[in-house]
Amino acid sequence: MMLSRRVFLGAGAMALTLRADPLGMPIGCQVYPVRDALGKDFDGTLRQLAGLGYRAIEMCSPPGYASGGFGPLVGMKAAEMRRKIQAAGLKCESCHYQFRELKENLDDRIAFAKELGLRQMVCSTFALRPEATMADWMKAADELNKIGEQTAKAGIQTGFHNHNFEFKEIDGVLVYDQLMGKLDPKLVKMQFQVSVISLGYEAARFLRKYPGRFLSLHLQDWSATEKKTVAIGAGMVDWKDTFAAAKTGGIRNFFVELDMDMMQASYTYLHGLKG
């Protein structure tokens, strides 16, 4: 079959464009920062994200986050949600869940996840009290391992998302490192939130320290001078090194997690990131 020169060059340009995205993966975003807009106009907000260039989203469980802005979506069936996401030109393979709903309603959440087409169910936080002991953290990790056993049977990978809470020391030991020793490497993969750069912890260090233990990344950047979160590429994160280390870490996808006013600049930077 003969191909015209224009078609051939066009296909080549498209391939180069796809390869321009970090790790050759579609640039995704977590929808939590746009939850209010999503609740008011689900279809329109999805189209807006796709219009910015994003090709994947990470959802939050509507029942688990009903009081946090996702209440309007509780009545939507997973099949309908999946259809709307795909109609906007997006895909969704990952979703955040509250620890409590995973412990109390796991069968229901797995059923919803399968119908939505998820491959990853991420525990967003253990929600432990500030004075929690290391024993409390280890107990929660054991419980998440058991949850991971059940999701694995359904063909879904359990993940754990860090906040700043895990980057404190208890009796001279970093909670995050202790969790990595307790969580089963096969049953629970990690979703690393890059914003802990604000505490002095670089994602690349942990991605290399624990090869193959990671599932995904949450992307934010940090301005040391302004002491605030900024668009990707406008802060102090070394993104080339981060994505180089991500290969070692085993990253399967990544999601920008920023307010809408920083989403376009973040996509543009990531889409043009070379190396």
The assigned structural class equals alpha/beta
- Our estimate of the beta-strand percent is 15-25%
> Which word captures the global form?
globular
- Unreliable stretches covering 5 or more consecutive residues: 1-19
How many strands, what sense, and barrel or not for the largest sheet?
8 strands, parallel, barrel
How many strands? 12
Distance between the termini: 35 Å
Considering DSSP H and I runs of 4 or more, what fraction of the residues is helical? Answer: 40-55%
Mean pLDDT metric: 93
**Count of alpha and pi helical runs:** 11
Order of helices and strands: HEHHEHEHHEHEEEHEHEEEHEH
Radius of gyration: 19 Å
Instruction: Please list the strands of the largest sheet in the order they lie side by side.
Output: 1-2-3-4-5-8-9-12
Keyword list:
12 strands, disordered N terminus, alpha/beta, globular, eight-stranded parallel beta barrel, 275 residues, two-stranded antiparallel ribbon
